[in-house]
Design goal:
With about 180 residues, this protein is mostly helical. It has five helices and four strands. β2 and β3 form a beta hairpin. α2 runs parallel beside α5 and α4 runs antiparallel to α5. The chain is elongated and about 65 Å long.
C-alpha cells in the first residue's frame, strides 16, 4: 500500500526530492572516499586521512536526508494485513494513526536533537584527531532539521488525507 498524493509536484514534494538528490550525490562522494582510502591502504600502505570520521558522520546524514522523500511518497515500511481487512474509513483511520505516530516520533527527534546541536556548535565539538577534525554540529543540525521536516510531512499527509487529496488504493505514486 502506498499513499499517493494526487498533486505531488508542490513545494514540499520538490524540496523532498532536492534533499534526496543531495543525499544521492553525497553517497557518490562517499563511494569515492572509500575507494581512495581502500586503494591507498592496499597499494601504498597509506590510508586517506580522516576517511573514517567523514564516513561515520556521513552515514547518519545520508540516512536523514533520504527520510523526507520516503515519507512523502509513502515508502516507509508497513504491514497491510489489518489494512487490507478494513473498509475505506478504517484505512483512513489506520493511515491517520500511523501518520500521527510518525509525526510524534520525528517531532520528538527534532526537539531532542536541537539543544545538543546548539551545544556542539557552541563548544566546537568535533570528531577525529590529528590530520582531520570533523565538526559534529552540521550533522546534529541536519538531524534536527530533517526530523522537523519529516514531522511536517506527516502532518501534511494527514491534512491531504482528510481533505480527500490522497489515494491509498492504487499502490502507485502519482505525480510525487
Amino acid at each position: 500500500m502506498a499513499i499517493i498524493y494526487k498533486g505531488g509536484n508542490g513545494v514540499i514534494g520538490r524540496l523532498a526530492k532536492a534533499i534526496h538528490i543531495v543525499s544521492a550525490f553525497w553517497v557518490v562522494v562517499l563511494a569515492l572516499i572509500i575507494f581512495v582510502d581502500v586503494t591507498g591502504r592496499y597499494l601504498f600502505s597509506y590510508p586517506l586521512l580522516g576517511a573514517a570520521e567523514v564516513i561515520k558522520n556521513s552515514v547518519v546524514s545520508v540516512t536523514f536526508l533520504q527520510l523526507p522523500l520516503a515519507i512523502y511518497r509513502g515508502g516507509m515500511i508497513r504491514t497491510t494485513i489489518l489494512y487490507d481487512a478494513v473498509g475505506a474509513g478504517g484505512k483512513r483511520a489506520i493511515r491517520t494513526f500511523a501518520n500521527i505516530l510518525g509525526l510524534l516520533f520525528f517531532f520528538a527527534t527534532a526537539y531532542s536533537s536541537w539543544d545538543p546541536a546548539i551545544e556542539a556548535w557552541g563548544i566546537g565539538e568535533y570528531e577525529g584527531e590529528g590530520a582531520l577534525r570533523v565538526p559534529t554540529y552540521p550533522v546534529r543540525f541536519l538531524v534536527a532539521l530533517t526530523s522537523a521536516f519529516a514531522a511536517f510531512i506527516y502532518l501534511y499527509l494527514i491534512y491531504l488525507d482528510w481533505t480527500g487529496q490522497l489515494d491509498g488504493e492504487s499502490g502507485e505514486i502519482v505525480g510525487a
